[in-house]
Design brief:
The chain is α+β, with helices and mostly antiparallel strands and 175 residues long. It folds into two domains: 74 residues, MutS, DNA mismatch repair protein, domain I; 90 residues, Trna Endonuclease, Chain: A, domain 1. The protein contains five helices and eleven strands. Helix 2 packs antiparallel against helix 3. The radius of gyration is 17 Å and the shape is globular.
Length: 175
């Protein structure tokens, strides 16, 4: 596979305007396509694509940014990066499209396999949490309400110290 070149600009990564970059967006829905044909990626997405050897990230001087440096930057910029990245990587490795869900009040939204954003709505909203993190009943109820009000199922993604993820689904039922 062709390595896609990209540029690190503050807290985002923009790909070159190439056929490979456009195909990356069209086939796998990474990032968002810009009017000029480039694809803008979140740091989370860029880290994953560098890890999978699909992307090379350059700094402002044209020097490559290695995976360790990119992860370090992402962990400084993004809230709870390591837990969120473990969840992002797990879903992408399983073949799901995972996108941010800030407008829904959640970390991520997940589409069923084979469904692209715009074709159907996401099935789940996901809240990553570290295994050691405490979740109150009020927090749980608030997350459940977010999922219910957006007509999605709630997934709590619990990340242990080794980076393994367990999922707990919650949804409203009428007896």
């Amino acid at each position: 596979m062709e390595l896609i070149k990209s540029l690190l600009i503050k807290d985002v990564v923009c790909t070159e305007n190439s056929q490979a970059a456009r195909e990356l967006f069209e086939k796998t829905q990474y990032g968002s396509q810009l009017a000029d044909g480039r694809v803008q990626l979140a740091l989370l997405e860029a880290v994953y694509l560098v890890e999978k050897r699909r992307l090379v990230v350059l700094d402002g001087r044209g020097s490559p940014v290695d995976l360790a440096k990119l992860m370090k930057k992402a962990s400084r910029v993004e809230h709870d990066f390591w837990a969120r990245y473990a969840v992002f990587r797990d879903f992408r490795n399983r073949g799901y499209i995972i996108k941010t869900a800030l407008k829904f009040g959640a970390d991520f939204r997940i589409y069923e396999r084979g469904v692209k954003p715009g074709e159907k709505h996401a099935k789940w909203v996901v809240f990553p949490a570290r295994e050691s993190q405490k979740l109150t009943w009020q927090d749980f109820a608030a997350k459940n309400r977010v999922a219910h009000s957006t007509k999605k199922r709630l997934l709590l993604a619990i990340v242990d110290d080794e980076g393994d993820v367990s999922y707990w689904e919650s949804r409203w039922l009428r007896p």
